[in-house]
Amino acid sequence: MGKTLFDKVWDAHVVDTIPDGPQILYIDKHLIHEVTSPQAFNELEARGIPIARPDQIVATADHNTPTVNQHLPVQDPLSRNQLEQLTKNCDKHGITLYGLGHQYNGIVHVMAPELGITQPGMTMVCGDSHTSTHGAFGSIAFGIGTSQVAQVFASQSLLLKKPKSLRVSVNGTLAPGVLPKDVILYIISQIGTNAGTGYFCEYAGNVFEEMSMEGRMTVCNMSIEMGARGGMIAPDQTTFDYIEGKKFAPQGDAFAKAVSYWKTLPTDPDATFDKEYHFDAAAIAPMLTYGTNPGMGIKINEHIPETGDMTFEKALEYMDFKGGSQLLDTTINYVFIGSCTNSRIEDFRVAASYVKGKQKAPNVNAWLVPGSQQVVKQLKEEGLDEVFKNAGFTLREPGCSACLAMNDDKIPAGEYCVSTSNRNFEGRQGQGSRTILASPLVAAATAIEGKIVDITKTILT
Ligand SMILES: CC(C)[C@H](C(=O)O)[C@@H](O)C(=O)O
Ligand code: SF4
């Protein structure tokens, strides 16, 4: 029987199998950040265990870093302490750290792919649920807990039970203005936030084949929001072209050799999956969430369902929305374009395409937070920073920022924020804040109009 992409990568990394039990999987790359690594370093220290392969670990500072004045000492004592600890731990163990202000610094799921650290066929982990992002390259990438971070530090491997296989296929033609973010928000709105529990997902079909790497990363990023351990997309010419020439990618002959191996990875035609979903691309529209989990999504001009279960009622109360109403015309005072879901150059290009030559509405605070220093550099090279500044947007320095509001970038209680991030949980962007997840295009349009508008009308007419 044929093998799936997941099977091929998994099987190539099994070090040992415990009879009737879990397997030991070798991990190629271990990414770490300041929030989930300190306890793991402490555990190793306490037990006197050295780090097995420090050269396979890459560290960045992203979660609670300030997004203004990064050249100055960090004000917040908790953040400062975590960042200092990360620096100390990396120094001590010889781990490469791209700290605050470094030209390679950024959100872990933005900086690693753009440096060529993320490659097809790899196993990658990080103490962070959105590690699924890296699956866009055809790698098995998933988030791990702190005790597993310690396990990987100690052994460069993990004790794991193989997950079940799930395939989500989307075929057909997307309408103009429908972005990768809409595709994944649509999928989650259809199958729910638990559909992927216990599964590792592969995205297949011409819609993903035609997507850029940035778009594929947006999709794989949110795999975790449908409950899956991770998501992946078969590597192809788009993948190879993206990686070629990147700082840590194989170079010259080594690259050609790598590509010939990567070409063997896509799922065999006769491989089967434990569960499959199929969607028609034409059914997808720009999406918005109205509730407090990413599955509570509707098309931009649809109505919120009339009634639902307890979770639904509670969510509507928190969001102050009425069942059966539309979100169009809702006044919005905060727009956040950022996070590891949508803070890459392509996201800013599409937002700028709407913003160019216009002014943001006076009521809106429009925050742009690039995912990395490299993205900042690209923005400037392409003159997009000027487009946004001229329109009245605030361009901040890289980091997770208002995605989870661990730093000062908080949305005030009671305010709506149209956000390109991936989670709309209660209080996620600040206590009492109300998040509406959307694409960078919808977010940009909201900032300009000061309210939610039907972009299918504004951009097409
Ligand atoms: C802080 C970290 C553990 C967390 C995660 O794992 O996802 C964060 O990145 C998030 O998005 O909520
Ligand atoms: S940007 Fe948001 S989702 Fe991504 S790693 Fe940071 S906090 Fe988590």
TrEMBL record:
Pathway: Amino-acid biosynthesis; L-leucine biosynthesis; L-leucine from 3-methyl-2-oxobutanoate: step 2/4. CDD domains: IPMI. Binds 1 [4Fe-4S] cluster per subunit. It holds the Pfam family Aconitase. It catalyses: (2R,3S)-3-isopropylmalate = (2S)-2-isopropylmalate. GO terms for biological process: L-leucine biosynthetic process. Its EC number is 4.2.1.33. One of its GO terms (molecular function) is 3-isopropylmalate dehydratase activity. Heterodimer of LeuC and LeuD. Catalyzes the isomerization between 2-isopropylmalate and 3-isopropylmalate, via the formation of 2-isopropylmaleate. This is 3-isopropylmalate dehydratase large subunit.
